[in-house]
Amino acid sequence: MPNPNHSALLIASGHRIVVGIDFGTLSCAFVGKISKLGYFNDFTSGPISSRYTALKDAFNDDAAGTGKMLLTKIKFLVEPSTNHNADANLPNTIDALELVAEYLHQLFEYLMERLRNTFGTTLQPEDLQYCLTVPAIWSEHAKHTMRRAAARAGLISPGEVNMPRLSVVLEPEAAAIYCFKKVKEAPMRPGETAIVVDAGGGTVDIVAYRFQSGIDASQKMVEVAPGTGGLCGSTFIDEVFLDWLGSKVGKMALADLKREKGVDYLQDGVSDNVYITLADMQSFFDPIVEQVLQLIEKQLDKCPNKRSDKLFGVGGFMASPYLQKKIKERISDKCGIIIFPRDPGAAVVQGAALHGLNPHAIQARFSRFTYAFKHNLEKHQFLTKYPRGPEPTSADVFLHEEKGVPYLHVYHPKMTANQLVEVQDFYSTKVYPLYSWQTSLTLQLVATAEEYKQEMPVSCVNGHFDVGSLIVDGIPLSGPDRSVKLTFYFGLTELTAIARVNATNDEKRISVNFSTR
């Protein structure tokens, strides 16, 4: 377990109901303290409609003049590195955070109505604990955007934006928890490995786990190797098909037809027949399916003996018989058993709710990056400590305003890329304000995919990027101790920081202002 003093800051407790939310499909699962797992995916409420209902509403003559706008692939908007894939031209007055918050707010109101019908009208919003799923390949910035959206939506209060009543759950981890617990035809045995392939509409996440022990709420598993993933979900097959269709009828003509006929433009908008052969159909699927297969093989190459005892295929895309067939043809000789649950699209959201009952089912994860913070160190002290280099550049040097001597921005690594990190592992360090007049300090977090273990000037670190910054307030101007104890948890689903001002013993989980890459 984490530091016992931090339990209340890291682990939710005392809530009547755990709610899992899969933002990708806007489906929900919930579980009470004594009830069985419940699940629904028919959310349509207020000014928001979703799935096919949204498509119908967008082009229904009755909806003309309502001011509604059809937005698709909005999940891509949350992760800055993928927002160019979104089919959503937002007005200048609306950003992704506001859009997602409104979406979640309508879901929240609908959820409360459903749950009160099940658990009674005395149920209050504070009785709910939330487990919100995100792709494993998402950045820390995107994860925190979902936290802020949840707070703006009313799922949690603004003061709880960094608190554990809402936890961020990685989609393949949620799927693994569900499969290991609920898929009875392939029970996991201690020591066995399993690859979980979560293939959704946009992303595909693949992680390998070793099952350690336990049943039900006491299940324990660890990552076998760093996960893999990519943008090769089912929506990219749609794009290949539409490119093909545009080559047949003309891209401009197709766009005009879509504007004129709306959602039914492919059904009754073309008077001439367009024939699709088997070879054509395979050409839509094969490029995307091949990417999925290569990701699975890449993950298998990281497993012991390049094999896995089991493979679980989940996510909406995994309902495709063609994808299932191709996986079996290509991977069967490397996996003992390949299992596709009956409702693969529901595995993630139901696993998210189960995660809330067993938040440390995943005992250890591999760090994707080498994490460090920019440490200010006197230049002479650094050169004495490391006489053989590396040599700092002018970009690393600044003049200390009070001491009048040169200082360096130093990369001080705290976690190495590809390192297995247990969830209870934490790193604590003591930091001080740089100047006597400071009552707060700002710490800049940086990272790189390269493996570094020695501190060095920031300019000498290959491929480094800013992760974000954190601010600690409340430092006294005078007194015997102006230090701050910072504790980082790198083995959780989110990079988590806790700060304690030692003079006052004021300790809290602090928000990191995550940067975009």
Task: Give a description of the structure.
- The radius of gyration is 25 Å and the shape is globular.
- It folds into 3 domains: 4-171, Nucleotidyltransferase, domain 5, CATH 3.30.420; 181-236 and 265-355, ATPase, nucleotide binding domain (Nucleotidyltransferase, domain 5, 2-Layer Sandwich), CATH 3.30.420; 370-514, Substrate Binding Domain Of DNAk, Chain A, domain 1 (Sandwich), CATH 2.60.34.
- Strand 10, helix 11 (321-331) and strand 11 form a beta-alpha-beta unit.
- 29% of the residues lie in helices and 26% in strands.
- The longest helix has 25 residues, at 278-302.
- The model has no long low-confidence stretch (mean pLDDT 85).
- Strands 6, 7, 8, 9, 10, 11, 12 and 16 form an 8-stranded mixed β-sheet that branches. Strands 13, 14, 15, 18, 19, 20 and 24 form a 7-stranded antiparallel β-sheet that branches.
- Helix 7 packs antiparallel against helix 10 (278-302) and helix 10 packs across helix 11 (321-331).
- The chain is an alpha+beta fold.
Question: What secondary-structure arrangement, pairings included, does this model have?
Answer:
Elements: H1 7-10, E1 17-22, E2 27-32, E3 38-40, H2 51-59, H3 75-78, H4 96-119, E4 128-134, H5 140-153, E5 166-170, H6 171-182, E6 193-199, E7 204-213, E8 220-223, E9 228-230, H7 235-249, H8 251-261, H9 265-268, H10 278-302, E10 308-314, H11 321-331, E11 335-339, H12 347-357, E12 362-366, E13 370-378, H13 379-385, E14 397-399, E15 406-415, E16 420-422, E17 427-431, E18 441-448, E19 456-457, E20 465-472, E21 484-489, E22 496-501, E23 506-510, E24 512-514
Parallel strand pairs: 1-4, 4-5, 6-10, 8-12, 10-11
Antiparallel strand pairs: 1-2, 2-3, 6-7, 7-8, 7-9, 12-16, 13-15, 13-18, 14-15, 15-19, 17-21, 18-20, 20-24, 21-22, 22-23
Helix pairs in contact: 4-5, 6-12, 7-8, 7-10, 10-11
